[in-house]
Amino acid sequence: MPVLEVKNLTKVFKGQPALSGVSFSLERGEFLGILGPNGAGKTTLLNCLLGLVTPTRGQIRFFGLDLEEHLREILERINFASNYVGLPLSLTVEENLWVYALLYGVPSCRERIERLLRLLDLWEMRREKTRHLSSGQMMRLCLAKALINDPEVLLLDEPTAGLDPTMARKVRNLIKAYQQDRGMAVIFTSHNLLELQDLSDRVLLLHQGRILAEGPPTVLCQRFKAQNLEEVYFKALKEPPLC
Ligand SMILES: Nc1ncnc2c1ncn2[C@@H]1O[C@H](COP(=O)(O)OP(=O)(O)OP(=O)(O)O)[C@@H](O)[C@H]1O
């Protein structure tokens, strides 16, 4: 059974569809990359999956359970990180993780927090106020927060946006290593097509709220007669080639 099944998902904001009949599924341990131009509906899709936005139509099932009916039970088994969601800035790094560990009822909190701080290279700065973190450190803290409940499905909205190439690579490697170690399924949105090509088992190209193309990067490259995902993107969107 897939860990996630989305059927005919539609979200209309003030008469304008942000998502139109989106259907896909996610298998245990699978890495699904979501790409698409600004306004394609990527964040709306993740917000629907988190129960933050109520779909106009369609069905979302995690672990075979309907999201609306089993929201709390499902949220305990998934998690989320975004470069754009803030954590309380007046708390220290460690205190932030304690808040979330207690909210999730994480067993052996102290050990779990120490493990995540070390894994994400935050141990030395555990007593720093969160407001003093650089964007790369903040993203790693958001990831630590997102891993606190050992999620079976992790949703990541542009986790590498705004990071320098070294930090972005570090974050990617951490996510991939953790995913492979734990068999966690990941949905990852990004505008960095090289990183999506490297990481994803399958990608989903959204455009104007619809799925324009879907499949493993290599299969899409064959289908679009493209060298890489970037070419697939431009060909699928019928962007004219650069002169
Ligand atoms: N709360 C809202 N109210 C009204 N319109 C919204 C709302 N949230 C999103 N939209 C609209 O829905 C469409 C999809 O937006 P969304 O943020 O999902 O796109 P995106 O693919 O994540 O874009 P980006 O790459 O710029 O982050 C846009 O036209 C946006 O203006």
UniProtKB/TrEMBL annotation:
GO terms for molecular function: ATP binding; ATP hydrolysis activity. It comes from the Bacteria. Keywords: ATP-binding, Nodulation, Nucleotide-binding, Transport. PROSITE patterns: ABC_TRANSPORTER_1, ABC_TRANSPORTER_2. The keyword Transmembrane helix does not apply. InterPro entries: AAA+_ATPase (IPR003593), ABC_transporter-like_ATP-bd (IPR003439), ABC_transporter-like_CS (IPR017871), ABC_transporter_ATP-binding (IPR050763), P-loop_NTPase (IPR027417). It holds the Pfam family ABC_tran. Residues 4-233 form the ABC transporter domain. The keyword Lyase does not apply. Belongs to the ABC transporter superfamily. This is ABC transporter ATP-binding protein.
